[in-house]
Design goal:
Helix content is about 40%, strand content about 30%. It is of the alpha+beta class. It has 2 domains: about 1-25 and about 145-179, no CATH class; about 30-140, no CATH class.
């Protein structure tokens, strides 16, 4: 009977460990080469065409849809739209915690472009953004070091705490059996 309880106990620890380590995911915004020439920036942006282009501007934040990077003309063309909820993790992260879960994983596919826009832009506007007007670019990537370190710490904590409880419970039962 005791073996059955021990088996259940360790299965519970395993399930909890998997759940907690899966929740320890972090991202970081990486500032891309700010000193690049417009031509080099154009090529860099073109190489990231599979990402979600998030425009951060003086007029608000937008998703740039139907993106066309014209490398030779050094400009970016697209339609401004609202940013879907799954792409608002970084924007809404006021505490700079930089954590994500499986539902907010699309944050890892974002490119944030900081650029001034005309005051009359709105959702549905087609915009042409000169590459030279981009003040800052951030690529969002998984923070491997922080994610791994947190997973290890949670894993150790999840193993040590139940083991301490296990020994406290069974040592008290053993003392009662001896007495």
């Amino acid at each position: 009977m005791k073996n059955h309880h021990i088996s259940r106990f360790f299965k519970l620890i395993l399930v909890l460990s998997i759940l907690f380590t899966a929740a320890c995911n972090y991202y970081k915004p990486i500032l891309t080469s700010p000193s690049l020439s417009s031509s080099a920036k154009s090529k860099e942006i073109a190489s990231m065409s599979q990402r979600a282009f998030i425009i951060r501007s003086n007029q608000g934040d937008f998703l740039l849809k139907n993106v066309n990077v014209k490398v030779d003309e050094e400009e970016l063309i697209g339609m401004l739209g609202p940013i879907p909820e799954e792409h608002q993790t970084y924007i809404k992260d006021k505490s700079s915690n930089f954590s994500y879960d499986s539902e907010t994983k699309p944050v890892l596919q974002e490119l944030h472009l900081y650029v001034p826009l005309d005051s009359d832009v709105k959702f549905g506007s087609i915009v042409t953004i000169p590459i030279s007007s981009i003040e800052k670019m951030e690529v969002i990537e998984r923070d491997k070091k922080r994610s791994t370190n947190n997973s290890i710490i949670y894993g150790i904590g999840l193993l040590i705490l139940p083991l301490i409880l296990f020994f406290i419970i069974f040592s008290s039962q053993l003392t009662q059996a001896i007495a």
